[in-house]
Every structure is written in structure tokens, then in C-alpha cells.
Amino acid sequence: MNPQMYPEQWHTHSFRAMGCQMAVWLELDNENKAIALLKEAEAIFRRAESRLSRFDASSELSQLNARPGAWTLVSEIMWAVVTRALFMARETAGLFDPTQLVALEAAGYTRSFELMGSNGAAGAETAVRQYGQWQTVQLNAEEQAIWLPPGVKLDLGGIAKGYTAQRVIDFLSDWGACLVDAGGDLTAGAAPDGWPGWPVAVATPFNGLGAERADLFHLWLVDGTMATSGVDYRRWQHNGRSAHHLIDPRTGLPAATDLLTTTVLAKTAVRAEAWATAALVAGMSLAQQNLAAKNLAAALIDQLGNLILTPALSPFLAATA
């Protein structure tokens, strides 16, 4: 959103964290207080990143992944994110699976995307196919401990980002209406004063650096998340073949999907993030079936540029008329 287009009591703060560009919005009359609160919102993201990043060898996630076959006591945030990720693996029948890090690294995604350039890490392309391996992760709620079997590593990625965005919304909502834009995934609290919601849009897929992205349609976002997964941006060449960051757990390779992007709306950021990924991996036909069964609002764009909207999206579109 362009800050110049909206009321002066809508304050915004931009920064980079968790591998993407962030922007946080807060409606508050007191500008100095708003600035301080938005800086604390950034700090919440940075603290979460220090624990949940797979690209930092000293992070709590990296330490957990380095201890297969052993029970590891974890922090409150690690416990919260992992348990939610495993719940979503169950809800999506394993199409979203947080245990695909080994397969992701085998596809060449071994470092933060902005450091990769157009090529992933060298090495043999290997299908790391262990469909349903999320079920092998063990939890001890009493001790708040996690056990990973040998050969299984966690990648919390979008779930960590969504969970943290929700924490920021919960924090800022005590002060005013707020919105988090986490790399294009939008999580909103209450609607700004006098508005039906936060004005957001679903954009056309990424088409190269510098290419203008048009808005496909607009909607109002209130007390929920609009998350997008796609194979249009995070792509690279691996052993002479095109690869991307969304692994199909059924094959252990980057998903061979007929979808280009999927956008899902849900009440919680974690659910929107997981279903956006699960729908993309599933492909158009199965994604439509699954999203309809869950009554989820979604927009699907296939590799030819065709746009398909689920029936549950209609009320959101009507609200913008």
C-alpha cells in the first residue's frame, strides 16, 4: 500500500527480516507512540528469526535439526510453531509438510534466496521421498521437548513467518487497527476507523525484476490472513534444470504443478500459509477439491495465466463493490 494514499494516522514501518521485505501498519493518533510500537514490532520479527531461521547455524531450529534421535527441550515459540506446523500437516493430509528440509537442500536451496543468485548448490539431484514423515516427529508436551528421527529436519519457513505476523498483530491490536505485510502475505487485525477493512489486492504473478505487477482484484481484509504461495519467484537452476522452493512430499522433488500461484484467506496466518502451500503442491484439480471441502476462500492462477476463484471467495469480492 502507498502511505501517501491513506490517512495520516496510518503509520507504517518497513524493514527486511525472515528473507523478505516487511511492512507493518498501525492506526494511531500519537505519532511518536506509533513509531515506538512499530519498532517493537520489528524487534518481534528479529527475535523470532534468530530462533526459527534454518540459515543461521546458531539458531534454535538449526540446533534442533542437529540432534536427531535425541529429545530436545525447546522454547515457547519453537514449541508453538512446530506443533501448529504438524497440526497443519495433518489437516492437509501431508501436502504441507514441515519435515522437507533434506529434500529442499537436495534441490539446491541451501542458503538464503537473496544469496543464491540464479544457481542453487551443486550436487546430484536426488528425490528425497518420505511421504508422511511429519508423523515420525515426536512431541512431549509435559517436558516441552521434540524428538526428530535420523534423516528428518524441519523447515518452518512460511509457518514461522505467519505465526510471527500473528504475534505482531496481537501486540499492536491493543493500540489500534493494524496490518502486517510479510513479503506479500498480509495479516490484519481490526478494520481502521471508518473503513470496512484494510484495502488489499491480489496481484499478477512475478514476471521478472522490474516488471510491473498489476492488481487482479481488490478486497477488504479484517481479522485474518491472505497468504500466497507460488513458483513464479523463488526459482533457480540446479544441475541444468529449473527448480523452486516448494517440495512435493509425494515425490521429494520441487512440485511439478500446473499452478503458478495460490492465494488463500483464513482466520489464522498459520492456516492460510499452510493451505496456500498445500494447494500449490496439489495442483489445480485436487486444490479445488480440497479448498472447497474446507470452505476456504482462494484464488488460483495456473501456468497459462488463468484465474480460478473458489466459491468461498465471493463474499470478500462483493464487499469491495
Q: Please identify which CATH superfamily of one domain we are dealing with.
A: ApbE-like superfamily
SSE topology string: EEHHEHHHEEHEEEEEEEEEEHHEEH
Helix content: 25-40%
pLDDT averaged residue by residue: 88
Strand content: 25-35%
How are the strands of the biggest sheet laid out side by side? 1-2-6-7-10-15-16-17
CATH class of one domain: Mainly Alpha
Classify the secondary structure makeup into a structural class: alpha+beta
Return residue spans where pLDDT drops below 50 for at least 5 consecutive residues: 113-125, 235-243
CATH topology of one domain: T-fold
The N- and C-terminal alpha carbons lie at a distance of: 19 Å
Radius of gyration: 19 Å
- Secondary-structure arrangement, i.e. CATH architecture of one domain: Orthogonal Bundle
Number of helices, where a helix is a run of at least 4 consecutive DSSP H or I residues: 9
Secondary-structure map:
Elements (H helix, E strand, L loop, with lengths): L9 E8 L2 E8 L3 H22 L7 H6 L5 E3 L2 H16 L9 H6 L6 H4 L21 E3 L4 E3 L9 H16 L5 E5 L2 E4 L9 E6 L11 E7 L2 E7 L4 E4 L2 E4 L2 E2 L4 E2 L4 E8 L2 H14 L1 H10 L3 E6 L4 E3 L4 H5 L3
Antiparallel strand pairs: 1-2, 2-6, 3-5, 4-5, 6-7, 7-10, 8-9, 10-15, 11-12, 13-14, 15-16, 16-17
Helix pairs in contact: 1-6, 3-7, 6-7, 7-8
